[in-house]
Amino acid sequence: MTSPVAISENPLDPGLYIVATPIGNLADLSPRAADILSRADIVAVEDSRVTAGLLRHIGIKRPMVPYHDHNAEGVRPGLIARMAQEAVALVSDAGTPLISDPGYKLVRDARAAGHAVVTIPGPCAAIAALTLAGLPTDRFLFCGFLPSKAKARADAIAEVAAVRATLILYESGPRLAACLAALAEGLGDRDAAVTREITKRYEEAVTGTLTTLAARYADSPPRGEIVIVVAPPGEAPPPDAADADAALAEALTRLPVAKAAGEVAKAFGLDRKDLYARALVMRQAADGG
Ligand code: SAM
Fold it and tell me: Is position 8 within any domain?
């Protein structure tokens, strides 16, 4: 035990308490999270050994019920029933429950049963990585873990390629280089950051383009826990004047001047009046005038 918490004697109201826990540095457990854990009647946990360590750190013992991907369907009804009388805390091994971790069905069913649902927010690797990456934060898309098989991963990347947002992905060390290379292939060579071991002793954020990062990690897969952050797509380059002229010349073979100008303006995102004037010049030149 390194940091005793002030434990309230008051029982908690019955319901579900979603409690975020540290992603490495135990000092990141909030006082409120520690207080709720200390007063919960039971704690639903992914791995009781991991959570026992956290509870030991704050000097408490609570009854734990395993709740993870392999038993959730069977355990959930019992937990929901207990929420009528008891305070059930939900934690994952690290970070915010429900974020690439079990829990959303527990929240859904708790609400459906009319139980109170309370969140105790705190660490989340995705958000911590976003703050370290130095990439735009105004719009971001959390992609979780991509599929490990190459084809499924490429398909998943293609689905988000046009999204105008910073992308956040969880990945493991052994798969990092292949994932970065697939991202470069599917998204273009965007700026990115590989953040690792956040809040821990060897925390780092390595920035570069996707291809330089893929090369860096190709022969030396990093240890520890990893989040990849990828910049949004760049602005589309301005249309090339020669391409617009070529399209206009072709359109003039099929259409009257105004319609040809309209079609090309729409296709290239250019000003219709400018193109109309240009089309008139081209038509006159073609007519020998
Ligand atoms: N629920 C957790 C959260 O709020 O971030 C995420 C759980 S997910 C099963 C675990 C993944 O999160 C790891 O494989 C890694 O990609 C990322 N992660 C967790 N802790 C991390 C850390 N300290 N540094 C970097 N990435 C971390």
Answer: no
123, 157, 190 - which closes a domain: 123
The string of pLDDT tens digits covering residues 75-113 is 999 999 999 999 999 999 999 999 999 999 999 999 999
Number of alpha helices (DSSP H) and beta strands (DSSP E) in the chain? 11, 10
The residue length of the chain stands at 289
198 lines ligand 1 (CB under 6 A): yes
Q: Please give the number of the atom of ligand 1 that sits closest to the Cα of 200.
A: 23
CA distance 138 to 135: 9
What is the H or E stretch that residue 191 is in?
A: strand 191-196
- Tell me, using a 6 A CB cutoff, whether residue 199 lines ligand 1: yes
To the nearest 10°, the Cα dihedral for 93, 96, 101, 106? Answer: 110
- The terminus-to-terminus CA distance of the chain in angstroms comes to 92
Test site for ligand 1: of 124, 225, 229, most ligand atoms within 8 A of the Cβ: 225
Is the pTM above the cut of 0.85?
Answer: no
Same domain, 97 and 141: no
Ligand 1 centre from 170 Cα, in Å? 7
14 φ/ψ angles, rounded to the nearest 5 degrees: -60, 155
